[in-house]
Amino acid sequence: MVVPAYPFKSPNRESKVLGPDPDVGERMSLQHLNSIGARIQQIYPPGGHVTIVSDGLCYKDLLGVSDEEVFGYAKGLHLITEGLGLKHLKFMDLFKLIRIPSHRCDLRILSAARVEARSKFDQNRFLSPSSTEAEQKVREAKEVARILRQNVVQGEEVTGSNSNDQRFRA
């Protein structure tokens, strides 16, 4: 089962929430979702899993939520899940789901890429879907996505190293 949920904590700190981190409400709802998988396992031995997909990065700008806050919230959910041993829950990164490479450590590049992509879509939003120009824009977007998937190499600092060691992955 796939559940689109947990984008980020409400930004309304005055009357809804106390802060940006997951709290008792998230803990209880994660336990409830986990119990669904556990109940499935009672009648189907391999069990069931609830896969949580967050789309917070897609619309966080509308509510003034930062990338750091979205990623911090997700990390908090993972810590709760691991800490409570909720083995029937899985998390899926939305960018992996739609096959866009992402690297959580490089928030500036991720944010700039999202803004640029959104800008391009907004520029062409009034094209007729059946128009030649719209079809060309879709082909261009698919080609850019293909190039990014095949050619983007991202570096990651190796922690605990005194030198400028990097790990690279495509």
TrEMBL record:
GO cellular component: mitochondrion
Superkingdom: Eukaryota
InterPro entries per UniProt: Complex1_LYR_LYRM7, Isocyanide_synthase_DIT1
GO biological process: mitochondrial respiratory chain complex III assembly
Name by which UniProt lists this protein: Uncharacterized protein
Species per Swiss-Prot/TrEMBL record: Alectoria fallacina
